[in-house]
């Protein structure tokens, strides 16, 4: 429900829908790279003019909309921003309230060791750890689900020590990706996928055999 999301945020971030409106958080798993991105690039090479992943996600969510021709569906992508430069939705908060992944934040650590430092939170998935991404929201404005029960996200980083380690690694060593393996994971990015996301966006086209 949209109301689960709005209830934990300041009004400036609220989604403009009734509280019991149905919404889905869209995640990409490690296999997205081989199962969705590479086939999409091979097929749509000449049409790729911006970020290939963003275009791939947009394509697949358009396909979802086509499956429901009689339904109004609003899509918000993770990269979209408002004129105020604020994001259109807070992806990690949405994933947490939907029960999809646990959003670990500074407030989840009782003995905070960081003083005045700015510490950003990070979502961890119980199966994929940090090897996943939140790609968007699908909203069904005409479908109300007042009796939907809110699932709690799985608290898979349950000790104080592990939470401190996670937030330390994410905030101060995020480039090496160690925070992604804070728990035992079932699947992670392939070496090819790691190389792709470690490459500056402007140079990723070359890795996929695209020219700009």
TrEMBL record:
CDD domains: MMACHC-like. Pfam families: MMACHC. The keyword Transferase does not apply. Its main location: cytoplasm. One of its GO terms (cellular component) is cytoplasm. It is found in: Cytoplasm. Its cofactor is FAD; FMN. Keywords: Cobalamin, Cobalt, Cytoplasm, FAD, Flavoprotein, FMN, NADP, Oxidoreductase. Its EC number is 1.16.1.6, 2.5.1.151. It comes from the Eukaryota. The keyword Oxidoreductase applies. It catalyses: apo-[alkylcobalamin reductase] + an R-cob(III)alamin + glutathione = cob(I)alamin-[alkylcobalamin reductase] + an S-substituted glutathione + H(+); apo-[alkylcobalamin reductase] + adenosylcob(III)alamin + glutathione = S-adenosylglutathione + cob(I)alamin-[alkylcobalamin reductase] + H(+); 2 cob(II)alamin-[cyanocobalamin reductase] + 2 hydrogen cyanide + NADP(+) = 2 cyanocob(III)alamin + 2 apo-[cyanocobalamin reductase] + NADPH + H(+); apo-[alkylcobalamin reductase] + methylcob(III)alamin + glutathione = S-methyl glutathione + cob(I)alamin-[alkylcobalamin reductase] + H(+). One of its GO terms (biological process) is cobalamin metabolic process. One of its GO terms (molecular function) is cobalamin binding. PANTHER family: CYANOCOBALAMIN REDUCTASE _ ALKYLCOBALAMIN DEALKYLASE, METHYLMALONIC ACIDURIA AND HOMOCYSTINURIA TYPE C PROTEIN. Belongs to the MMACHC family. This is Cyanocobalamin reductase / alkylcobalamin dealkylase. The gene is Mmachc.
